[in-house]
Amino acid sequence: MKIIAIIGLIMSSSLVVDKESGMLIDKNWELVKANCTGCHSAPHITSQKNDREGWIEVIRWMQNKQGLWQFDADTENKILDYLTANYGLIDERNVQKIDLASGMVIDDNWELVKASCTGCHSAKIVIQQGADRNTWLEIIRWMQEEQGLWQFDADTENKILDYLSKNYSQSN
Ligand code: HEC
Ligand code: HEC
Fold this sequence. Notes:
Elements: H1 29-36, H2 43-46, H3 52-65, H4 73-86, H5 110-117, H6 123-128, H7 133-146, H8 154-167
Helix pairs in contact: 5-8
Bound molecules: heme C (2 copies).
One heme C (HEC) binds at residues 35-36, 38-40, 44-45, 48, 58-59, 62, 66-68, 79, 83.
């Protein structure tokens, strides 16, 4: 499933919120604040989730019916970028990035794991396996004993286990 789902969840993201407006502080947020909180407060926006099309509709409706001014294309795009990234149907900050060539999740140490684990068999064998940290270690020990996998120094092994147990802890 991981390959099909270009999106998924990564646990690590720290969000900073502007205390005054309640808006997420992210690229272009001040532009959106300046253009979108003059007639109503930010919770009007932050309580909503729309895809880009949906946000365009909201803006057009406000322009046609509620006195919202026109934006030049660049400004509108920036506003839409911010809105869909932060108040979109998909939380893009949490979108898991997948390396298209291997199908592996792009996360800390993924290139190390790719280099260490895809020389003898495809990444698919790794991706399909779900295991906790101890079981991943057992699999590595088994490959080292039976399948000719080389030894890793402790630091490298820890990084590999960090990546595997974080991203492939469950069967796919
Ligand atoms: C010129 C005034 C004005 C500005 C500026 C403005 N809005 Fe609005 N907006 C309104 C009015 C009026 C309403 C409808 C009355 C209400 O819900 O309070 C509204 C309603 C909304 C709603 C609720 C829509 C719904 O379906 O209930 C959202 C979401 C929204 N605005 C987002 C934005 C965003 C995003 C921006 C910046 C691009 C923005 N507004 C800028 C006037 C404005
Ligand atoms: C030196 C070659 C080699 C390297 C490098 C290698 N493996 Fe393997 N691995 C094998 C062989 C051989 C098998 C068993 C044959 C098969 O299933 O294709 C295997 C099987 C597996 C399996 C399936 C185990 C099972 O129970 O069926 C997993 C999971 C796995 N490897 C993960 C990894 C990971 C993670 C790494 C990197 C730390 C890695 N492999 C690096 C040779 C290797």
